[in-house]
Amino acid sequence: MTRAATRAVSSDAHTVAVIGLGKLGACLAVCLAHKGFYVIGVDRSKRVLDAFREGLSPVVEPGLQEMLSTARTRLEVTEDMYESGIAHDDPRAPRFAVYQYLGYLEEQVVEAVARGLDARGGS
């Protein structure tokens, strides 16, 4: 379990995972964090992840940077779906995930779920 998922456990906020942090996913993740949810965002783009980690919006959208500035402590990003706790049966993992366009993530999703099943003994 990553720092993100572990920190979410100690929080009173509900945890939401947003898979894919492009134009729609970035806005959704920031808005949910701004509204008080703890958000774990997953994307494979180093540019997007680095922007979020630096507190910068990776997309241009009116008001998004300001919302990100106030919600930054409730938003964590990662490139590894399995390490985030999303793709396996961990009681501390997010109970709700929002999947954006999965075309480029299909292989990663399948591999992460398979690793989670292997970790549980293949059930």
CATH architecture: 3-Layer(aba) Sandwich
Tell me, briefly, the overall form.
Answer: elongated
**SSE series:** HEHEHHEEH
Distance between the termini: 20 Å
Topology:
Elements: H1 3-9, E1 15-19, H2 23-34, E2 38-42, H3 46-53, H4 64-71, E3 75-78, E4 96-99, H5 106-119
Parallel strand pairs: 1-2, 1-4, 2-3
Helix pairs in contact: 2-4
What descriptors fit this protein?
123 residues; elongated; alpha/beta; 40% helix; Rossmann fold; 4-stranded parallel sheet; single chain
Description of the structure:
- It is a single chain.
- With 123 residues, this protein is α/β, with parallel strands linked by helices.
- The protein has one domain (3-119): 3-Layer(aba) Sandwich (Rossmann fold), CATH 3.40.50.
- The protein contains five helices and four strands.
- The protein has helices spanning 3-9, 23-34, 46-53, 64-71, 106-119; strands at residues 15-19, 38-42, 75-78, 96-99.
- Strands 3-2-1-4 form a four-stranded parallel β-sheet, with helices on both faces.
- Helix 2 links the parallel strand 1 (15-19) and strand 2 (38-42).
- Helix 2 crosses helix 4.
- The chain is elongated.
- Mean pLDDT is 77; it is low at 8-12.
Summarize the structure.
By secondary structure, the protein is α/β, with parallel strands linked by helices. It is 40% helix and 15% strand. Strands 3-2-1-4 form a 4-stranded parallel sheet, with helices on both faces.
